[in-house]
Amino acid sequence: MIENAPCGYVSLLPNGRIEYANQTFVDWSGHAADQMIGKRLSDFLTMAGRIYYETHMAPLLRMQATFEEIAIDAVTADGQPLQLIANAAERRDSEGKPLSIRLALIRATDRRRYEQELLGARELAKTAEKTAEERLQREQEASELREQFIAVLGHDLRNPLASISAGARILDRTVQTEKEHQIIAMLQTTVMRMAGLIDNVLDLARGRLGGGIGLDRDARQLLEPVLVGVVDELRLASPGRIIQTEFRIDRPVDCDRSRLAQMLSNLVGNALTHGASSKPVIVHAQTRKGSFVLWVSNAGQPIPAAAMNKLFEPFFRGNAHASRQGLGLGLYIAAQIAKAHGGELTVSSTPTETRFTFEMPLV
Amino acid sequence: MLGIIERNNMHVRGTGEKAMMFAHGFGCDQNMWRFVAPAFEDEFRTVLFDHVGAGGSDLGAYDLNKYSRLAGYADDVVEIGRELDLENAVFVGHSVSSMIGVLAAERAPGMFGKLVLVGPSPRYIDDEGYKGGFTAKQVKELLQFLEANHMGWSAQMAPMIMGNPDKPELGQELTKSFCRTDPEIAKAFARVTFTSDNRADLARLTVPTLVLQCIDDIIAGQEVGEFVNRTIPNSRMIVLNATGHCPNLSSPDEVISAMRTFV
Predict the structure, then answer these.
(1) What percent of chain A has pLDDT over 90?
(2) Cβ contacts (< 8 Å) between A70 and chain B: which residues?
(3) Is B95 a catalytic residue?
(4) Are A55 and B26 in contact (CB < 8 Å)?
(5) Which residues pair with A278 in a beta bridge?
(6) 3-state SS of chain B: helix, strand, coil percent to 5?
(7) Rounded mean pLDDT of A183-192?
(8) Which of A85, A242, A314, B97 is deepest in the core (most CB within 10 A)?
(9) Which of B24, B51, B94, B245 is an active site residue?
């Protein structure tokens, strides 16, 4: 029955030499039975199989008397690999001395090929994962470097600007003619515009550093004088334009006032740039039940539908005259400030009116 | 980081002035000494441990870089010796641990007074004028073959193997884990074992040494044993009747009596 069983069957003496091999194993291996008897099982294994037998299988059998599902690589008479899976048991006498070792062998060529493929796939997956990780790491490093660069650049640009502004102030005290005063006023306006651009760049860098725009909220300070100050400054810088205000702030607003001033300045600046110059820009601020609303409107050409979705993205620039264009950060930063306050900046644009509305909750 | 005792799953037994440290080779763990070490517990303090990556050692301490050289394992042996204040102790190393012991003795003079090397080989791959028994190609095939033999290893099993071997309820499962190793670690250990060359270290060894050589050992043949015996200045060799590579398991009595003639 064992002779032609559907598995190889080999029995070894305690010294590892073969005492019996069934016909099935003889057929698989191509070695005649009488060639195998008396030889070591190792003699019919690949070198790797021999090492494994000596370092793992033989010790295991001595220690725990059996093993299961261990791979064995044999070699056939004509030198072909014969891949097997083995179960084995050591038969012992009453004193625990080994009497014989019996092995049941199953051919495992397909299974081993499949296992190799799995291993190969795992290696591939590992490599891919590593590559992706490295790429991410590189991109993070590049991005950090870029943001650091922007931050340093913004800082270094501010200093010369402060010198220009201080110089202009000193000159303003000594110049005589109206024309000279006008030139110095223009210089100061340009300095202000430049400072605003630098602030925007810095805010972008900060916003992109992950923390978002930081706020310094204070509900006890009045908001209205700050908003009035922003409008007055812009009126001075844009002679000939009308800016109307409607302020009804009768509750404390827990906000960062200088950030809201920055937002208003960006919105009004935008309205003056893109709105019809013959029509007024309207600034409206109001506390309602549970919220604070600030909106800025202008007349003129409506914003094209295609541009509406991109308005609040950084570096988006409308089709204004090139010399009046900024970096395209004003609306992006205004939206970030709104978000930092737990609020939202929205836009509506019709042929009669374009309106940016900021609304934030009040506790 | 666990202490050295946990890291190397150390077990100290026996009584005696002197200590005897047993180090297992590539393949299984300290259980390789289970039929030999108890025989010396009356005269020696016996120290058994698992190399990091094997048996009940702390797999978290496995550092691919450190253990890519036998020196990394030798450093651990020295640390274990220092932990126990070993002086003039006997080091018994099987297979690759023979060379680990040679390196450890060189690193910590005075720690080991005698070395017993069971089936040692300073280099497995043949070289000009030297027959180690293997070609480089065969060693490469072994490393590939080890991937096919995961010994029932899977990630789910790992925490259990690292569990406490003193818990009897885990005994049954742990019994089956003697030779179970993370395939990645098994491959790395095989690589450092079968590609090392420590021939130059043998000549520098000053500690008295006993080489135990089996007949019919295909891992470390008689020629290699003779090379080791000839190259170590203060060495003698006993050829056992045992066959194979693990006389500590197959003929423990013979190993014990041979050791007694020396220690």
Answers:
(1) 40
(2) 149, 151
(3) yes
(4) yes
(5) none
(6) 40, 20, 40
(7) 83
(8) B97
(9) B245
- By C-alpha distance, the chain B residue nearest A98 is B250
Is the per-residue pLDDT at A197 higher than 90? Answer: no
In A, residues 81-120, which contact B (CB 8 Å cutoff)?
Answer: 112, 115-116, 119
Q: Which of B76, B98, B217, B235 is catalytic?
A: B217
Shared domain check, A77 and A29: yes
A137: containing domain: 131-208
Give the residue-averaged pLDDT of A191-200: 81
Residues A248 and A188 both lie in one domain: no
Residue B161 domain flag: no
Chain A residues near residue B243 by CB distance under 8 angstroms: 15-16
Query: In what helix (H) or strand (E) does residue A16 lie, and over which residues does it extend?
Result: none
Do residues A236 and A313 both lie within one domain? yes
Q: Measuring CA to CA, which residue among A132, A119, A45 is closest to residue A82?
A: A45
Q: What is the pTM of this model?
A: 0.64
Element (H or E) spanning B199, and its range?
A: helix B199-204
Residue B147 lies in a domain: no
Q: Is B235 a catalytic residue?
A: no
CATH number at residue A141: 1.10.287.130
Residue A286 lies in a domain: yes
Please classify residue A249 by burial: count the beta carbons closer than 10 Å to its beta carbon, then call 0-12 exposed, 13-18 middle and 19+ buried.
middle
Total domains present in chain A: 3
Q: Tell me if chain B has a CB within 8 Å of the CB of A185.
A: no
Q: Is B249 on the interface with A (CB under 8 A)?
A: yes
- Which residue among A54, A63, A73 places its CB closest to the CB of B145? A73
Tell me how many residue pairs between chain A and chain B have CB atoms under 8 A apart.
89
Say if residue A203 is in the same domain as residue A293. Answer: no
B179: contact with A, CB 8 A cutoff: yes
- Mean pLDDT, chain A, as a whole number? 87
Q: Calculate ∠ Cα A323-A329-A330, nearest 5°.
A: 85
Which domain does B206 fall in, by range?
Answer: 4-122+198-260
Q: Is residue A198 part of a domain?
A: yes
When divided into structural domains, chain B yields a total of 1
Identify whether A290 is part of a domain: yes
- CATH number for position A254: 3.30.565.10
The CATH number for B8's domain is 3.40.50.1820
CA distance A4 to A83: 19
Cα–Cα distance for residue pair A316/B17, rounded to 1 Å: 84
Asked if the structure places residue B86 within a domain, the reply is yes
